[in-house]
Amino acid sequence: MAWMDKHNLTMLNEFILMGITDLAEFQGPLFGLFLIVYMVSAVGNLGLIFLTKIDSRLQTPMYFFLRHLALTDLGYSTAVGPKMLANFAVNQHTISYNWCATQLTFFGIFITCEIFILSAMAYDRYVAICNPLLYIVIMSQRLCHLLVAISYLYSVFLSLLVNIKIFTSSFCGYNVIRHFYCDILPLISLLCSDTHEIKLILLNFSAFNLVSSFLIVLVSYILILVAILRMNSSKGRHKAFSTCGFHLTVIVIFYGTLFFMYLRPKSSRSVDTDKMASLFYTLVIPMLNPLIYSLKNKEVKNALTRTWSMCANILLKIHCNIH
Question: CB 3.0-4.6 Å disulfide test: which of 71, 122, 174, 181 passes with 220?
Answer without folding.
Answer: 122
